[in-house]
Structures are given as C-alpha cells and as structure tokens.
Amino acid sequence: MSNQFFTYCEKLYSNWRNNSLNLEGIPSNLFDLDFAPEPYFIVNSGPAPLYMLLTNPGAPMEFQHRSNAIESYKDFAEISREIYFSDKFASEGGVNARRRLKKSIDFSLYLDYNGLINIETIPFHSASIDKNKALKLAPQSIVIKEYQSHLKAFLEEKPVLIVAACRSDESIHMGSINQNAWLTFQCDLANINTSELNMKPLTKKNGKITSALFSNNEKYVVLTMGSNNLPNLNAL
Fold this sequence. Notes:
This protein is 36% helix and 19% strand. By secondary structure, the protein is an alpha/beta fold. The protein has one domain.
C-alpha cells in the first residue's frame, strides 16, 4: 500500500504539472492552484518513520510555481526539504516554520521514532484555510476525494501523529478531540479511534491541563491550548 500512495502522489503532481488535473468542485479562491501540490515530504529520513498528518501546505513559494516545475515529485519534495531547513528560508520569514520542523523531529524521537514524514490532509497550498469549507470538499471534488481515499488506506496501519489547537476556556480532557470537527475528520483519515485513546497531560498552568498527548497503538494526537504547536520538551 505504501508504494501505491507514493505512486499516486507522482501521478497527482504530474497531472498538475501538465495542467490536466481535474479541479472540478474546488472553489477557485480556496487554494493557490498555480503552485505545486505537496502531499508529503520527508522531514527526517529513517527506516520506520512516524507520519505527521497536517492540514495543508501553507503559503506557496516561487520555486513551487508551475513555471519552475520539475518532472519528479519525489525530487521536488527533496528540494522542498532542503529549502525549508535552509538559513535563507529562515532569514526570509520562515524562521518559525523551520523551528516547528525541528521541534517535530525532536518530538518524534521522544516517541521513539527515528524518522519523520509530513503528510497533508489536503495537498494544495494556501496562506490560510477555511476548515468548514475544507470539510465539504471530498463530496464535491473528485481529486480531493481520490487523494483522501488513498491517504486513508495508506495511513491505516501507519504510526500517525496529529497536532491540533484546542479551546483555552477549559482544561483539556478526554472529550476535547471530539469537540473539533476538523480534528475528528483527520482522526478518521488516520484510523484513530478516539474512544480508545489514553490521555497523558504534558503541561499545566493555573490548574489547567494546557497540552496533552492522546495515544493508542502507535496513533497519537497532541492538543495544545491556543495553537497547533508542539510543546517544548524541556517543559515536559
């Protein structure tokens, strides 16, 4: 199944590059479709990686524009990785993004995984995303439905980590995940049964649990109050 997903990603990229991707059902202002889809990239190479399920790639960069497209998505993903970790990227506004990548590597090692691959719920770029609209895409869009079908099959037996923000007016609790429709949708894609998760508080403030790790059978969800950032390991 792994090879099938990566083969599909090559097809997705090739169809986009050739301008033959079926974009019917995707509102024209929702994504930057002149820039390459980015279904995954290898953050830290290792033989048994953890897969970090994200929402979608953020604001696009010039090297990702159709006019700069190269033939292979695998090669394109490696170029993306090199740029995201570069000093130039950090100095040009990407310092927080690079810091998040490094923290995600640290957290994957904390969970005892020697590799990390970022993988997207939706493979298309946007500076921001309306998740309520995004939830309605699969029934409307052939390409989104097809992509998420391949993604769900791929992640079924893979170790997966999802990081999400949660409300700050109450302590994180066992029901917090199911209060978030988008996160519940991602858990379904990743074959995470939320009723079987165990919760481990990670950080507390003023008597509230402010971040927590939910886990079961190599499926993980981290909730953090106010932002979808991983907590600092030094604070655990």
